[in-house]
Amino acid sequence: MPVAAATWGAAVTIRPMQSDDTQDEPSTAAGRAYLAVAALLALVVGLLFAGSVDSSRAWGWDESMHAGLPAAPIALPLDAGDLGEVAEVLHGCMQYPFVWPLAVGSAFALGRAASEAIEPGPVTGPLAQAGGAAEGAGQANDGGVGQADQAAGASDLGTRGLEHFGRRLGRWSMALMLFGLALLARECWRGTRSPWGLLLAPLLVLASPLVIDYSGTWFLEVPFAVVATFALWLWLRRARLLFAGTPVGPGAREGAPGAQGSAACTLGLDLGVGALVLLAFFTKFNYGLLLGLGLALDLLLDLVLVLRGRGPSLRSFGVATARLAALPALGFAWWFLLPLPLGSDIAAAHRAAFADFLGGNQQLVRSDDAVRLLHWVTSFVATPRLFVVVLVGLGLSAAFALRQLRCGCASARNQLRLWLVLLAMGVPIVTHNFHLDRFLVVLVPAAFVLTAAGWSALFAAAFGRLFGFDSPRARQVTILAAPLLVAAGLAFRSLDGLPAFEALVGFQEAPEVRDYQTRALGERWSTNAGRKLSTAGIDRVAFERLLDLVAGELEAREAELGRPATFAWLGISSELSPAALHIGVHERSGTPERLRRDAATVRPDGKPTMVVTFEGVDPGWNDDQLFAWAGSFDVVFTTTPNDVKQRRGRDFMRGYQERLIQSSLVVPVELGTGPGPPTRGPDRAGRLFSLRKP
User: Fold this and answer.
1) Is 470 left (phi over 0), alpha (psi -120 to 50) or beta?
2) Which pTM does this prediction carry?
């Protein structure tokens, strides 16, 4: 019999954990229609957002070094069928793991191979040119990029192919997450109740500037959130089936002690959950550990229930848990103990790098709390109004789950499972001294699903009382409720966005500075498909011009030497990384050997070989060290100013430039205009020099 319960002043019928609550898939017409609408929404979002990726900014340090650099060497050996080299690249991803670079590099190589099979020739066909064509279209309003546009797609691998392909694939991953959130929300809201309010979860993604922004970049937060979404969905599905009242084993009797359990929780489901948890870890180590912490806490609570006789038998639970842990245990053993096909020395390097990574950023000064809050109210969601919607939804979910848990409601228990994960991940992220806005992206799956579940409970109670529970009218109104709620939160963003910024950060009195702040805030809360992306890279026009000049100089040196020339970069720029230079040069000169040989090499101090340092701290090199470093390369490139944004803490690099030039070991040759501070304009940009051996 249904159990009637009063929810927030309204009577709403809640069914115990049986009947519809234990079905594998929604069997009602509304349930099937809900999933169909969610799939259609994901498809439309993928087509629209992947086709509108902004390309006005090149990729920056983190994007190119942590993800782009492994992806490019993965794509090259896949073309040649050299899996051994792919394995070496994967094991070289010691601090920033390999799942996303492997996904992009593999998809790029496979797509390019298919394109060449259809359209053979020196130009690799529509797929490889897609990046260049899309970027050229994106640059049309900015005056274009000159000769760089003509070369777009002319090479088998480069920033125009690989970089833009990765951005578009990231947007498709966001679309996949939308459908995953619909599945996850449905798992928290089973039974005969209308599921339409759950569309709030994927709709909130479209109201999250952070997700839209970083899904168009190579940062790892959105790929992790996608994997976490499906891991949580299978986790809740597995837990529901494990604790469902299903007889287990031959001769088991309905209702017999210990008869509940995991008959429906198959080996495949256990292994699938373990595989996704392992995949999450190798997508981003630190977030994977936090996700694992939340799931482990939930597993401990399940064990307590089992020991109290409120679940499957201890033996069934133990077997299911062992199957769940099998793949993660094997994966960790492979990475940290015996990383086949390589040796144990690589395992030791993995362990050391992992320990260093977890201990990093501990000594940094705590980020400003006002800026943190600004990220929540104008980036996590676009407006303070929507942030209130999220907070209210979370509160409603907690109230529903705690009140209905006594009824044995599977939906309530699943929401509490998500709450454990949200707290396990959210508390360390929110309280850590080091903070970047993109860290909040990984909280999206649990936070938005719980928000949708909470508001769905309120919709069911309010509309059920007004129009009759389970009446067609109540369902029809619920369909409109979630979109209207999001639309109301997005309308006229300046109404509460500007006052929030004024209260938290404050506008400057100077009109030009205030105008800049207003424009920057407008970029921050934008949810447009073509919004500018937080790549931390330099302007695309300057980037392409610089790569053209560098590639031309290297081709001239190669003609003299009879081999690909090695090169270094004397300067510091967080916006222009060794990976971006090497991949960009490969696009233009087509020398895979140089990319394989030089792009990822590092010195014993952990710095890339081709730079003196990428940090704003003088390493204190003497003349012998500087001259030996410069002499190991065929060409040394440098710019004035030595740092794109002219940071004062990096002025020491001018001394290195002067000492090297005055040594007579090199001859400076000005190549042309290089990247300069954005405020200087095209007529006052920096200059690029080649320091050649005499």
Assistant:
1) left
2) 0.87
